Amino acid sequence: MANGGMMGEDSGIPGAAPGGPSPSDSSAATNPLSIVPIDYRPLVGHLDLHGLAEQVLVTENQLADSHDPLERLVLLTTLAWYQRQRDTNAAMAMVDEAMDLLHHASCAQERELRRLTARLLLTKAECRLLLGDLAGAEAMLAGAQESFREIDDPLGAGDACMVEALLAFDQGQSRRRISAHRRGWEHYQHSGDRMRQRIARTWMARDALSEDAEAAAEQWLAELPVVPGLEHPGLDAVVAYCHGGLEFARGNFLTAQRHYQRGCDLALLAGRIRLAVMLAANAAGAFSNLNDYVAEFVWRERAHQLARGTGWPAALGQCLRGLGDTLRRLGQTGRARQLLTEALDCLTPLGRSRNYAICCQHLGDLDMEVGEPALALGWFESMGDIAAELEQADLQTEAATGRSRALSALGRREEAAAAMAEATALLAGCANRWREIELLMAQAELHRRFPDLPPPVPDLAPHHTTAIHLLSRALALAESIQGYTVPANLLSALAAAYEAAGDLGQALAFERRACQARGLLRSREVSDRLLAMQASFETERLKAEGEYHRHLAAAEAARAAALHEATQTLELLGRIGQQITAKLDADAVFHALHRHAGTLLAFDSFALYLMDDGGEHLELRYGLELGRPLPTIWRSLSDPVSVVARCARDRQELLIQRSAHETDAPSHIPGTRFMRTLLLAPLLAGSRLIGVMTVQSTQENAYGERERLIFRSLSAYGAIALSNAAAYARVDSTLSELRLTQNRLVQQEKHASLGQLVAGVAHEINTPLGVAFTLATHLEEEREQVADTFQAGALTRVSMNQFLEKLQEGLRIMTGNLQRAAELVRSFKQVSADRSSEATRTLDLAAYLADVVRSLDPMLRESRVKVAIDAQPGLMLTTMPGLLSQVVTNLVQNAVVHGFAGVEAPQILIAAGRAGMDRLAIAITDNGIGMSAEVQAKAFDPFFTTRRDSGGTGLGLHIVHNLVTGALGGDIDLASIPGHGTRFLIHLPINPPLSVGEMS
Asked: Rounded distance, CA 365 to CA 336, Å?
């Protein structure tokens, strides 16, 4: 397992920031959990631009213990600033509380109180901006800027410019955004904050890329190394955004998405959630341009998950319009229009932004596909107007191309040709293969419609029409893009062009390729991803609708009550589905389906039929009538009179109403009551038929549309659960064997760890004992010489004094070595006893950590690794010490073995402190080589190791995770940056409710 990383740009204490002086001492600055008294001079003069996770943790801990009004005011201001994108509503509440404290605050430093006021206004401005209140944000921002200007605070003024740039972005004011970034950089130069200067400069580079990517690359690339120094994840996220934009503009989508993915992770580390959403959506867009729909779905889902919890219109609009365009390309035009319209509603109040323009483009593409070129033309013209305001050439190119396509479909030849010429001129000189492909395809369609237009080249190749020439160029470009899947519509267009030219062989070859490309869109993996994403969005939409209808309850009581009931039913079905599909035993699934169906439907009989292995018969595996079990029967799938067999054959839901004279029907089960209403549904897992479920009633017309909807949902859940249960049963024996093997390996790993500890301590004890023994032997020889001299009567005062001095020095050295050996034995006895016991006791955490580290001294000295402990004495913890020792030992050993290759001065810091009223936190941080994102994702998996060739088992961190989250009742987080080390953050309850012994 590779390891790594110390992320300590800042102590997180108000008054400390990257590039600025810290009021705390140097040791506290490297400890993310140390509690340092606040320096009120200045109060909030230097804050991180967004705040890292450890800074948020420290400030939260300080706020929980703070009772001084002025101290609380400073901490609330700091935490609100750091939380403004992590939890916008919570940040707004903290600002309000801080404003109340400000009204009663008294401080000799009036200027600092004004600085606090300005920071609170700026925080609230960004919160309102994120929540879509642009007018309120504008007013708050103006107040903050004026206050920073009056107190001559360049750092605050620079931060205000960065918020202004975000506001301008949402309003579609490109010039204002560019100006704000430049002014922010100038303010940061005066403040002396080098990190902020670099962040502002990087945003200036991103602005330049939007205007002319290649010119900007030539000007700025030297300042933006592809592998940054990782001085701050907030800076590196913007650098990744720049490189991703440049490669995207060049059509290098594989490279672009790597930058976007990396930037998204870094933005989350820095608390820049809005940027993380943008980067996730851009990564999805890069995969979209590669026609990799599965990967696109993954990143669409990630962007939506990030945006969904924020409530930010701009972020939600971006995610909705991205998904809408994906559904359009997959042929689901109705759902695509619904999502694109919702996206436009989200983005409309935010101004004419880039996102709004792209949404117009998607709607235009959709109208072209459904045969509405007049409507499409309106969308492309709106897009062109916005693109001109934004002065963004890429959007102008696509708007002109879209206009040409729409005008061509409307038969307006001259206007279509003029729009095409405009698009061609805009694209000239840009190394953008992807947009050139789209342009060539549009040109080919234009020439197909209007063959009399002049060809783009005077001499075409033999047997080539203008359309074939243009489409062949597009195909060559598509095949030159790494990872790009040639779209089916390009191949179909080539097939049609060759057919029109009379070359049927080429036409057939290209049509076959087009069919293969379309097959990718219909693959099982794509379908599953699409269904999962649609279900997620549909659930969110239903919840939102439920909330909306609940607000109407006062005005429309009857209607709202019905809607409320429907919403509750949907939510209940969702919970029931989770419960049913979580079961992995067929009998448990049967009972769960029967129980939940009984709470939602009225029936007298419930039955589940399952297909046999041969696929020819249905067995009544589970059935109840009025609480009595039904007899086991079999129905042939070819039975012409069995309604169960018909439901299975047709794979369709059946609702059957029977009259009284049908009581002797041949399908009736002997000994059971006659049922007047039968509702049956096939249990389908994908295309595989599992069986049939039915509910039946002795009443007429027992089931309406509502009951059918509920029954349909239960059937779908039942099919999934029974399929899972069957699969689980098939592999259960294999899993049991694997678990036994894993447990044996885990025990071996624990014993090996204890064996290493024993060997190290034994070697360590040998040294002081050897010194003491050698010294004792030497003193014995000296004593004998003095005794012989005394017996001979030749002992002088000088000789006696020399002997006594040697004796005193020897005893001093001997005592020190024996004490050292005794201390090692004590620590080892404590740690080894703890290792062999899972009893719970209360301990002083700082002292215990020192014992554990002391037992590791031999390994640490041999590896030249320095370990420091930062924990206050008296920090009491009730836990299982043996398990805690195992956790700390494994994490330290993991760092020593995997984390320090090539590191000149390897260091590990173990810090401990309170994390709230009832929890303690332990942070184990190193300055090693760090982990890649792929390694971090698998770090706690069993048997995963990067050192298998060196004997690694891959169980060390797996054991740590199991012990912390299991017996110790806590949680563990991993954060790492390649090249800058790793931090494991453990939270443990101070007083766990039950010990292992009590639970057993």
From this structure: 11
In angstroms, the CA 684 to CA 692 distance is 9
Most confident of 134-143, 347-356, 501-510, 737-746: 134-143
Q: How many CB atoms lie within 10 A of CB 664?
A: 7
Edge-to-edge, what's the strand order for the sheet holding 866-870? Answer: 866-870, 907-914, 919-926, 982-989, 971-976
How many Å apart are CA 932 and CA 4, to the nearest integer? 9
Separation CA 392–CA 383 (nearest Å) = 11
276 pLDDT band (50/70/90 cuts)?
A: very high
DSSP 663: T
Pairing of strands 907-914, 866-870: parallel
User: How large is the average pLDDT for residues 519-547?
Assistant: 52
Quick check: 683 and 689 in contact, CB under 8 A?
A: yes
End-to-end Cα separation, the chain, in angstroms:
33
Q: CA 299: distance to chain centroid?
A: 10
User: What secondary structure does DSSP assign to 781-805, as a single string?
Assistant: HHHHHHHHHHHTT---HHHHHHHHH
Q: Helix/strand/coil (H, E, C) string of 951-993? A: CCCCCHHHHHHHHHHCCCCCEEEEEECCCCCEEEEEEEECCCC
High-pLDDT (> 90) share of the chain, %: 22
Q: Tell me the C-alpha to C-alpha distance, in Å, between residue 89 and each of 85, 96, 553.
A: 9, 11, 26
CB 273 within 8 A of CB 281: no
Query: Which DSSP string corresponds to 807-867?
Result: HHHHHHHHHHHHHHHHHHHHHHHHHHHHHT----EEEEHHHHHHHHHHHTHHHHHHHT-EE
DSSP 221: G
Residue predicted with more confidence, 809 or 537: 809
- Residue ranges of E strands in 41-125: none
Asked if the model's pLDDT at residue 62 lies above 50, the reply is yes
Say which residue the tokens 């360590």 belong to: 764
- The answer to whether the predicted template modeling score (pTM) of the entire model surpasses 0.85 is no
Average pLDDT, the chain: 78
Task: Say whether pLDDT at 745 is over 60.
Answer: no
Please say whether the beta carbons of 998 and 982 come within 8 A: no
Beta-bridge partner residues of 869: 910
pLDDT at residue 532 tops 60 = no
Omega prior to 42 cis, within 30 of 0: yes
Q: Alpha-carbon distance 622 to 644, whole Å?
A: 14
- Across 754-775, average pLDDT: 61
Three-state DSSP at 907 gives: strand
Q: Helix (H, G, I), strand (E, B), or coil: what is residue 554?
A: coil
Q: Which two tokens stand for residue 415?
A: 């206007």
Q: Rounded distance, CA 939 to CA 957, Å?
A: 7
Q: Measuring CA to CA, which residue among 932, 873, 865 is closest to residue 897?
A: 865
- Neighbour-count burial for 957-979, b at 16+ CB within 10 Å, e otherwise: bbbbbbbbeebbbbebebbbbbe
- Those residues whose C-beta lies under 8 Å from the C-beta of residue 462, and which sit 6 or more positions away, are none
